[in-house]
């Protein structure tokens, strides 16, 4: 059986150290993780697992043979075609077995059910698609009787799983494990790799185009070998990866001191703009200013590459995604975001800086000395930009921050009211600037066009 595992073509840049982090003539320990093209995460070497009920089950690697203990382990199932309450993997020996790990709370898992069902029907007895969930009998029974689950009662699923998830460990679902007709672990992938072409290629002993999904513990430094000893103190670490990695979620993670101060940030499977944004909020705040999307001047040739790109099917493209992490010594936590911007300037395709620029803006002013906004007290509330938009017993800045992110407001907003007390303001909604101005006029407030010298984030190509 021939099967080609194609790892993501991703570029990785690591820093040996930050020159600024030199103390006492010694550089802090930092890690060089990988060079260019291809990530392979170390996994434990396999050994013959014990029985399936043994707590010492060892995770199976790609290429491992399924042990007899696993073949013959009774598995509790629902929606079995013959109405059985239990089944074993041995029931499907000599077939291509596709294990679909899922959960009732996973929307993408549920969206995949019709496709997997259609493929099962297409290939018939040549394959077996078997869903697996750790969730218990009551939760699964309720799922298939109510809501969206009622539409998918054809899903033959293992429930109460405590065995398969140990042989095929994962951190995110959907997670797919492939067992070839010869009883070997062929691959672990995302659900999108379950296609007619890939299934047929496996059955024909041909190469597939599947990308291995090896889940990473995002609470560890990204891609840092598990052999990094706990006796070592990681003082500085930076990695910048261009490309989508299937074993990571799309989101953020933090490293915090015991006092809650952030000394490490991690952004995974995300766009450059979503990496820049949290950095800029912090750096603008250190300047006593408020960052918003209107505080950017983008001077790059292809600005679309900075943010989410949708294809013709409405799905997000992945070729412009990145993984980035920086950890600094805890005593340098207050400089974390300066170092992050410096990292991006060194290793990305862009140069970004915060500069004073004379720009068009909207200035919030009072049109009368009559005070119509002073708060009457009560529980603080802010529903901006919902309709109606209500600000109760809060600072004017809370409203300005929310207005600054609204699409109908195309310019930065500057507060020149000089008002420092808490306010009560209510407007029907933020439909357009004209109607917003009219409602603010009721409170003797106005937004007037002007030019001001403001801190702006300027981004250029290298």
UniProtKB/TrEMBL annotation:
Domain named Thioredoxin: residues: 60-208
GO MF term list: antioxidant activity; oxidoreductase activity
Source taxon at top rank: Bacteria
InterPro entries for the chain: AhpC/TSA, Thioredoxin-like_sf, Thioredoxin_domain, Thioredoxin_ResA/DsbE_sf
Pfam family, one: AhpC-TSA
Annotated protein name in UniProt: TlpA family protein disulfide reductase
Organism from which the protein derives: Chryseobacterium lactis
Source organism phylogeny: Bacteria, Pseudomonadati, Bacteroidota, Flavobacteriia, Flavobacteriales
């Amino acid at each position: 059986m021939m099967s080609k595992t194609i790892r993501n073509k991703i570029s990785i840049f690591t820093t040996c150290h930050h020159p600024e982090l030199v103390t006492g003539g010694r550089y802090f320990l930092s890690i060089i993780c990988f060079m260019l093209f291809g990530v392979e995460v170390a996994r434990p070497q396999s050994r013959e697992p014990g029985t399936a009920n043994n707590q010492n089950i060892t995770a199976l690697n790609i290429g491992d043979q399924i042990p007899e203990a696993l073949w013959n382990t009774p598995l509790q199932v629902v929606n079995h075609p013959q109405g059985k309450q239990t089944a074993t993997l041995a029931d499907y020996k000599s077939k291509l077995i596709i294990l679909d790990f899922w959960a009732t709370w996973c929307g993408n898992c549920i969206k995949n059910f019709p496709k997997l069902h259609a493929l099962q029907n297409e290939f018939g007895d040549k394959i077996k698609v078997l869903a697996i969930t750790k969730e218990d009998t009551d939760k699964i029974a309720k799922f298939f009787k109510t809501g969206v689950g009622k539409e998918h009662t054809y899903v033959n699923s293992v429930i109460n799983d405590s065995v398969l998830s140990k042989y095929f460990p994962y951190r995110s679902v959907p997670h797919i494990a492939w067992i070839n007709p010869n009883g070997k672990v062929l691959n672990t992938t995302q659900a999108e790799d379950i296609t007619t072409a890939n299934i047929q290629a496996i059955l024909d002993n041909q190469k597939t185009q599947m990308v291995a999904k090896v889940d990473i513990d995002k609470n560890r430094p990204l891609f840092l070998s598990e052999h990094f000893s706990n006796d070592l103190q990681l003082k500085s670490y930076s990695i910048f990866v261009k490309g989508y990695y299937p074993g990571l979620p799309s989101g953020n993670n933090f490293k915090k001191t015991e006092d809650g101060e952030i000394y490490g940030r991690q952004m995974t499977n995300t766009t450059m703009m979503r990496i820049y944004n949290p950095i800029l909020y912090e750096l603008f705040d250190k300047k006593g200013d408020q960052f918003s999307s209107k505080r950017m001047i983008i001077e790059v040739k292809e600005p679309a590459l900075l943010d989410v790109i949708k294809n013709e099917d409405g799905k997000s493209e992945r070729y412009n995604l990145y993984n980035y992490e920086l950890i600094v010594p805890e005593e340098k936590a207050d400089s974390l975001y300066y170092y992050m911007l410096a990292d991006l300037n060194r290793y990305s395709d862009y140069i970004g800086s915060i500069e004073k620029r004379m720009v068009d803006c909207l200035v919030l002013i009072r049109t009368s000395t009559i005070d119509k906004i002073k708060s009457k007290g009560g529980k603080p509330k802010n529903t901006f930009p919902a309709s109606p938009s209500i600000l109760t017993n809060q600072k004017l800045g809370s409203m300005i921050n929310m207005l600054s992110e609204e699409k109908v407001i195309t310019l930065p907003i500057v507060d020149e009211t000089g008002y420092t007390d808490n306010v009560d303001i209510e407007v029907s909604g933020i439909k357009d600037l004209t109607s917003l101005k009219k409602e603010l006029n009721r409170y003797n407030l106005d937004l007037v066009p002007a030019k001001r010298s403001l801190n702006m984030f300027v981004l250029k190509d290298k």
